[in-house]
């Protein structure tokens, strides 16, 4: 489910760079970053889920021969091992200048109680354990170059976005891991940056979320379906889809943050690209949590009252 991308600079003074995104460099931030870094003259090892995908073909057509595509799924240990061997074999003499983790998998819009445990585990495998394994595997090269680690996390890992339970908790683990690496790797001269993007369109189609919602409804135990009601899940997913329709299409601010984290003489520890994100973090850090919760419900998802908490008069029968 997740991919890796590696980037190597052509400039003799700068060792290679490595970028590891999900769902790969064939879409979203990963593809945009790979294209931009290739234009800057870096040798790019870009991971994709499928070498035959349209996004992979676009990268072949738009990028220079410096870009190499790797097929990798972050939930498959053999894929990760093969990618690490490939990159080490080609960068062992020069070291590796940078690693970019861009794992961002989510397949559930629901409360924690409604989210099956396997969904939590999948999010952790892709968004946390995959980047952890890749980072640890490439640290010997990064120590040699005194290089960079740039990781794309999410504001959902900093605050409790409604109905992003499995995704948010995995991103919280990832953010703390990178903060830990920031402290531990400083003596080696490795600089670590974490990016918290705002609301951007990264390729997920509306019908994909409808299918995932229907699958979740079909798998819910009867007691949970009775407590929350089918309309509860229908409504939060409708709000999420409506929210994503107004997300920003221009990914350049995120790509600029990735580039700055890799190439700036003084990269920041944290980047916050995105419309209005500063206001959200100001509210989160300096105002009561009740204000933060109201803000998130107003501008993201505002769940309706679960069926089990409604007055009897507002109950609608749950289909059997």
Question: What's the SSE blueprint?
Answer:
Blueprint: E1 5-9, E2 16-21, H1 28-39, E3 42-48, H2 54-62, E4 67-71, H3 77-91, E5 98-102, H4 117-145, E6 148-152, H5 165-185, E7 191-195, H6 206-219, H7 222-228, H8 230-245, H9 252-263, E8 270-271, H10 277-286, H11 289-299
Structural features, described:
This protein is an alpha/beta fold. The chain has a single domain, classed as NAD(P)-binding Rossmann-like Domain (Rossmann fold, 3-Layer(aba) Sandwich), CATH 3.40.50. It has eleven helices and eight strands. The protein has helices spanning 28-39, 54-62, 77-91, 117-145, 165-185, 206-219, 222-228, 230-245, 252-263, 277-286, 289-299; strands at residues 5-9, 16-21, 42-48, 67-71, 98-102, 148-152, 191-195, 270-271. Strands 4-3-1-2-5-6-7-8 form an eight-stranded mixed beta sheet, sandwiched between helices. Helix 1 (28-39) crosses helix 9, helix 4 (117-145) runs parallel beside helix 5 (165-185) and helix 6 (206-219) packs antiparallel against helix 8. The longest helix is centred in the middle third of the chain and has 29 residues, at 117-145. Mean pLDDT is 87; it is low at 9-13.
Descriptive key words:
alpha/beta; Rossmann fold; 8-stranded mixed beta sheet; 11 helices
Model regions low in confidence, pLDDT < 50 over at least 5 residues:
9-13
The CATH homologous superfamily is called: NAD(P)-binding Rossmann-like Domain
Largest sheet, in brief, is: 8 strands, mixed
What is the count of DSSP helices, taking H or I runs of 4+ residues?
11
| Alpha-beta classification | alpha/beta
First and last CA, distance: 33 Å
Strand order of the largest sheet: 4-3-1-2-5-6-7-8
Oligomer: single chain
Question: Architecture, CATH level 2?
Answer: 3-Layer(aba) Sandwich
CATH topology label: Rossmann fold
How many E strands? 8
Shape: globular
Round the mean pLDDT to the nearest integer and report it. 87
The percent of residues in helical segments reads 40-55%
Domain tally:
1
Residue share in β-strands: 5-15%
- Please identify the top-level CATH class: Alpha Beta
Question: What is the radius of gyration computed over CA atoms, rounded to a whole number of angstroms?
Answer: 21 Å
